[in-house]
Predict the structure.
Amino acid sequence: MPSKYTAKAGDSLCSIAYQNGFADCKPLRADAANAYILNRKVDPCQVQPNDIVTIPEKTEKEVDGATDKRHDFVKRGRLAFVRFVHGSSNADPTVDPSLFRLNVSNYEANRGGNPDGTAAFPGTGVKNFNANGHNDVDTFKVEVFDIRGSGELDAEIEALKPVYNAAGSVTKHEPFPTPRKLAVKLGLQAGSKRFRSCYLRLVTDATDRAAITKQALLVSDLYDAGDKKVEILDQLVRASYTIPSCPEGTKCRSIVHAQIGTDRRRLRLNVHVLRRSVGGAPIVSTADAERRILVWLRRIYAQMSIAPKLVSAVREVDPPMNLVSISNDTGSRAQGNGRLKFRIRAAGETDQVIRHRPDPTDSPLKSAMALAAKINMPFKAVVTSNPARFDHSPGRKSADILITEASGKRVIIDLEHSTDSGQSVTVGRPNPMLFQEWNGNNWLVGSIEQRTILKNYGGGDNRFDLFVINRFVSPTLLGAAMMSGHQVDPARSAIPSVKWSAFVDLRSSAAGDGYPAVIAHEAMHAVGEVMHAQAAPKQLMHPFADAADAVTIAKRVRDGAVTYDGGNIAGDHNLVSRMRSQGSSLLESW
């Protein structure tokens, strides 16, 4: 009587038939119980994992043999199947494990070797082991086993697009509107019936693909085609092998799928575009800023199996001026010989003039608390103490007073003044058009302009905040990141409203693809608690950014040790793992 078989990845009707004693798939196709496989709208006649395939009843065959001799009968294995492998130097290809996950390559697309980039990437004619291809752990090959195969075989790999439901969950995969396919030739591995392709890579942009067109499969976003949702790490890579010996018109194929990414994570972030002036035009459009995240940050971080997740829509924000700093950039104590003063204003509200005479040796925090206590409704004050600058002792900390109005009206602080010879009163008045960044001694504190923006709009401990300004005072500066600093110097760690944030100028955020890696670079400073890469080839954390995309620009994140500078955090770091360890509170599981 007929039997049932549960299909596995890579199975085909021909292979199942062969395993069960038939010469080919005709008897299985003729069985009405298998009609649903033949009549599929997508991939008709092709078996999918977990399909229940009906095996027709077999006709018994008798074979004569002498009773005084031994007769060996070999149980049939699979006729043909395809799989992904990385390969090895083993002479026996059967010992190499199958790959069920593929990763975006961290190498320059057309380079190989160890360390990465020291040699040319082996070309399409290299189908056996080659160290220059093998040393990139993200390279892969397509392998076909076919007991009837000979010569050079043909296979195909294709990236499949995820389809999402209203809740954002992947429900299925389908070909991209413009199919992303790669035809590959497979050569026989000596002493086997296994055939392998050349070394292959997954890449996320057209520039990398163009560098090795016949060896790179593009797995990228669809943002510019009008689809924001498609994640690189939600895509599947399909390998298929059409079995030449199949006698049917629609031939049997062996098909397997591999997921993209290992230990996939999402980086929570918000993006804020500063307006040029209060109520004025934004530095860049929110659409352009969003594109930079969902195109370039998405493409570059896919190397680490990390994708950006916008917690809320990109927004425009006004430059605030509602922060008062006591002993900004000095952290000095009071002398007790004068008075601190400032005025608070908001439309439709009575002005408040706040005065306080500190006692000798009062700290900035104590003076700030005393001033805040004198602020009355509808105004509210929040006091924070800043870490000490690197050129000051750990106890010399400035303090800030952030003042808001209960109904959300814009607050303006002016008439600031101090007659105390020890403590100053400074108001933060950020100028997005010419923005003052931190300097070499207060990069965990931030400039008063940075703190004014961050303490108004920063997100705290569970996300990365990115702010877009026009340009910095330092004309060559493209970005400035605010790290946690807990490893740099625990006594000077950045505070929650400041750390895990960055400012970038419009060159890396405007329309187009100029300076494509800047945002990814600054985010890695903050999330990964790391400074600059010191060795060639250029890594993402190279000190200097590139103006245009190219194969050789600093957009790679080596999955291995790279030497970084940075005082207490200098050393050899693997940024793929360090992003997860240092930025764990900003990342969520897939």
